[in-house]
Amino acid sequence: MSSALPKAPRRGLADEAADLVRAAILSGHFPPGAALREVELAAHLDVSRGSVREGLAQLEREGLVRGGWHRGTTVIDVTAQDVEEVYTLRAALDRLATTTARRTATPEQLSRLDQLVADMAAEIAGTADTRRLVALDIAFHDQIYTAAGNGRLTTAWRAIRSQLHLFQLRRADAGYDHYRARVVDEHRELAALLRSGDRRTLARLAEEHVDSARRSLLAGLPD
Amino acid sequence: MSSALPKAPRRGLADEAADLVRAAILSGHFPPGAALREVELAAHLDVSRGSVREGLAQLEREGLVRGGWHRGTTVIDVTAQDVEEVYTLRAALDRLATTTARRTATPEQLSRLDQLVADMAAEIAGTADTRRLVALDIAFHDQIYTAAGNGRLTTAWRAIRSQLHLFQLRRADAGYDHYRARVVDEHRELAALLRSGDRRTLARLAEEHVDSARRSLLAGLPD
DNA sequence: TGATGTTCTAATGTTGACATTGAGACATCG
DNA sequence: CGATGTCTCAATGTCAACATTAGAACATCA
């Protein structure tokens, strides 16, 4: 159905622990600034501290948590500078990803982008579940990075992806009208230009897409 | 002398193990494709397997080694695609780093760039130790990323820095004339434009600087 | 009283032992 | 003889006990 047996890679407990903790952070169970104690998590997840430790190291690579020598691990908090840094870097990465994908994307991959835009539109027209809308937004960009086919670029994207997810969800708590009003159109335009746009126009749009998101987010933040 | 006690952070054994293994890889002790066995390293470094394991995970973040479920860790190979990926991403990162540093760099940081260029020139005129020349090249770009002051951007740079180091050293074994002929001038021009260039010219030069390196490296590689 | 030194403790850092697995050697069958 | 199944073992994955440390509570002294 979904895909022709790409692989069914058995992963370790560390990966699963990382997935669980990441989900808990994104769901709000661990708010920004919360301390993540290894013993506590190990007991709750029913794995050893070593595995939890390895999983937390993974989340640190993703920038979702911060840790220090003998000082434990805590969820990052969302300062204006953090937002500035992540969105600035993301603009540069997206610029490269979109211009690359413009050359390398297969028809199937482009169709998948259209499908995701359609899903967004349906979500807006329907229940408008903000969490799902944000997930679709990120999935859209995941697909672009996949289509670009540059492993290192995808790794760099993964290193800010979770932070981005956290930022967008955080904003969801405080009014999301502007986002909802533009998210479908902006992504539809991106998908269209990936098919038929010239490189420079696409590069500019990709940067503006991110810049608009950054300004919109910062406007509601300076707390 | 050096700096006014910024900090003397005690690090863990894992970090030291990572440093040692990284140095061993870059020195050629572990050639591309070599297997890094945890027990072996643990015995040789006189630390536990756990610490070695954590250190190897760190090197994996840097892209210097690859690992899989129950399949051990090996030094990455240097294929044409690897070079293509790393240099393409680096061009995008450097573009952002230089244009940002143009706004944020302090006079002291700019002076340090000049100093590094002078060191390169001295090295060329003198013994022309290739390893040291490559180290200066990378230190130059380290300084630019530091001056840009974007933590996430610096993290993304670190994720390809060691690979880049490995690539450049690998090429050093097979003729380095073109590199030696241009490295000083190119970096001097970059330093100059960081002081007085306009944004667009600087962005273009930063990309060309990397693109030139990539082509030069790929030319001598397809083995 | 405020600054400095000390003690205590909860949490992380580190380790060696045990469990599991992947890949090749070997045997078996068509 | 080639393909397939089984076995073996070295290497990794996991775990629980022990060692170390950062920070806070407390005591001490000018």
Automatic annotation (TrEMBL), chains A, B:
The keyword Transcription regulation applies. The keyword Kinase does not apply. SMART domains: FCD, HTH_GNTR. CDD domains: WHTH_GntR (cd07377). It comes from the Bacteria. InterPro entries: GntR_C, TF_FadR/GntR_C, Tscrpt_reg_HTH_GntR, WH-like_DNA-bd_sf, WH_DNA-bd_sf. Residues 11-78 form the HTH gntR-type domain. Keywords: DNA-binding, Transcription, Transcription regulation. This is GntR family transcriptional regulator. It comes from Streptomyces rugosispiralis.
